[in-house]
Request: fold
Amino acid sequence: MIKTANLIKVLFKNTDRNYVVLTQIVNAIIGLVSGKLIALYILPEDFGAYNIQFATYSLVAAFFINPFIQFVKSTNNSLLTKIGSKYYAYTYIGLMLTGYAFLVSALYFIYDVINFKLYVILFCFMILIGVYNIFSDFFTVKSKLVTYSKFSVLKGLAGLSFLAIFVYFSFDWLTSVELLWYMQIVGLILTLLLFYKNYSFFKSKIEVSYHSFFKRYIRFALPLIFLAFWAWINNFFDRYALEYFLSLKEVGIYNANYGIGSRFFIMLSPIFMIMITPQVYALIKPKVKKRIIIKYFKYYSIIGLALLGVIFITRNLIGNILLSEAYQDGFVIIFWVALAFFILTSIHLFESIFYSENKTKIILYANIVSAVVNIIANIVLIPMYGLVGAAIATVIGFMMQFIVVLYKFNKL
Reply:
């Protein structure tokens, strides 16, 4: 009882961090409401087509956009303040245009998507989402946690409001797939317009050549690109496998139920990550950090296993409340996806020490093992068990990643 009381005391000690935790919960609820509207008004085939497009964008972003955003985040308090924002802007524009060319080529040549309006939508989305993520990271790095919280909630609320208005008035000037992209864009535009004054654009204090700047970026980005590719496989390969072995309808059903199953631990895990991060990054011995992580993992496991039991018993009820009859073939995977995300978020607890000790190669190795197992499991299980096979493949992949991380954690 005393240990539990101390944990609760730690949880409520920092009001700014609590604001972030509350924000995560609110965002998860917004996601659930959005998922319900999508399930009621958008056919699984259309939702499946959108998710294949989004997965393709995510692959492009893993190579061109995300490493740059991480580079900006890591240099917010150092290089960016010295050389200014100009070179960063040039680099982002170049990377974004290159990534966009790859995205359009993939959609055109692989999926026969010939839709000029959609290409314009994707162009706008790629610009806006990159800027949004840069702003978001800036607020967290500068400890503007309340601003960050309002920033992220507004995006979700704006997108949800657009979707609700659109389906209520039954507008027909957009296809269902375009509507889902517009939902993202409206949220991004409104949020950036209201918060752009909170971001600081830096002017150059020292002169450096663009060549030296870009070389520094490449050295930083290459390992992240390699890691991001394997992480992308873990997160999105199952959608492509489902489309190949089954159809876009099954992709839509799978992704809607996947979103429901994942959100339980998306809401829970930030509470523990926020409590554990300051202690793991403190200047203390690794042995002490390991004891802290194990302590929090025990609490997380108790809560997580109890939650999984409830989800298993009520999975059909959850599906009926949060989705619709059109997606009921996937209700069974809600539990399996929740289990997969319990494992994944547990991994994040243990991985935190590898980040703090600059041993990120371990994270890369674990992701490679998980991705290879994930590919094999999907290819074997989807033809045999359909949607359930894809969900179980995700569980197996994350379990292998957990085993590798836990082994390296114990050896540290």
